[in-house]
Amino acid sequence: MTPEFSLIERFFTRPAATPGRALLGIGDDCALIRATAGEALAISTDTLVAGTHFFADADAGKLGHKALAVNLSDLAAMGATPRYVTLALTLPHIDEVWLAAFSRGFFALADVWQVELIGGDTTRGPLSMTLTVLGAVEAGRALRRDGAKAGDEVWVSGTLGGAALALLHLQAKIVLAPRPLAVAEERLHRPLPRTQLGQDLLGIATAAIDISDGLLADLGHICERSRLAASIERAAIPMSPALLGVRADLRDACVLAGGDDYELCFTAPAAQRTRIEALAGTLALSLTRIGVMQAPDGGKALVRVFDEKRHEVTPAAVGYDQFAAMS
Ligand code: ADP
Ligand code: MG
């Protein structure tokens, strides 16, 4: 038995009591999973690299949570039910304290959504982690980016801007008081994938995306794929409570262009409004209508932002570039 395998056994293999759905999990050359008729498998991979996506000295438990959360967020954006995950870890050296904390954070979230770790790879090198998640969705029903129709309304879940605000603080570009800092940091370090919402939007939403790169950029992807444009109202966008009292230009930048919140942005026909409002109640999660999809107007931005007086706010004025270096 190689040292790597005993390490995998110690930190990444669950007790036999954990019910596994895979036909064959960790320990062979491949994992085996059952293919189910009528079901599509949604598959997504994300890499987090130290120094690029997180600080190298970041809390290992939070990292374990976040690495899985950002991957689950992609499944949520398709309306898929999480099933399996693989984990490729690259570590500069074997640090048992770090590994124990990382795997605790990872499995705490995996257990919430009953995601089964079925394999991976462990290598030596600069710290990074690559996860692949697999989720199930009824064939033909997945929430894609290309399904929005002109006239559909644009919605977002939760609040935006908190994660970007925490990053501005960590980069010493602003100084936050302890309370708003705690709220913002929670969003940056422990994002919650909107897994249930995604599944509940099947048959309601026409398109969806998770907000990882900022509202303007990610809604822009729905526009591109659906060959449409969007108009949104700045005042309607739900803002992280940590942003109260922050300078208006920075606040707009965080809300419109800040990434890492992992909320869902989705489109739905106006006729679905009451169902969506009911869903917000059931999930105890705010769902806010922020704008509308429309035919593209050549030469105009794909996502246009309007202020309370119906004046268009230009991307420069909302500090769109302030986060350009983040992604
Ligand atoms: P191989 O040489 O065939 O690639 P490895 O020694 O890399 O096998 O891995 C042995 C087993 O442990 C495989 O089932 C693999 O999927 C699993 N594994 C390796 N690293 C991890 C990890 N970080 N998390 C979960 N499973 C892992
Ligand atoms: Mg290997």
Q: Helical proportion?
A: 25-40%
Instruction: Give the terminus-to-terminus CA distance.
Output: 40 Å
The share of residues in extended strands comes to 15-25%
| Low-confidence sequence ranges | none
Shape descriptor reads: globular
Physical arrangement of strands within the biggest beta sheet: 6-8-5-9-7-10-11
Structural class: alpha+beta
The major beta sheet can be summarized as: 7 strands, mixed
**Cofactors and ligands:** adenosine-5'-diphosphate, magnesium ion
Number of strands: 11
The sequence of SSEs as H and E is HEHEHEEEHHHEHEHEHEEE
Tally the helices: what do you get?
9
Q: What do these coordinates show?
A:
This protein is an alpha+beta fold. The chain has nine helices and eleven strands. The protein has helices at 3-12, 60-78, 96-112, 162-170, 178-189, 195-200, 215-226, 248-257, 273-283, and strands at residues 39-49, 81-91, 116-124, 128-138, 153-157, 207-210, 229-233, 264-268, 287-294, 303-306, 312-313. The protein has a seven-stranded mixed sheet with strand order 6-8-5-9-7-10-11. Strands 1-4-2-3 form a four-stranded mixed sheet. It is globular. The relative contact order is 0.15. The model has no long low-confidence stretch (mean pLDDT 93). The chain binds adenosine-5'-diphosphate and magnesium ion.
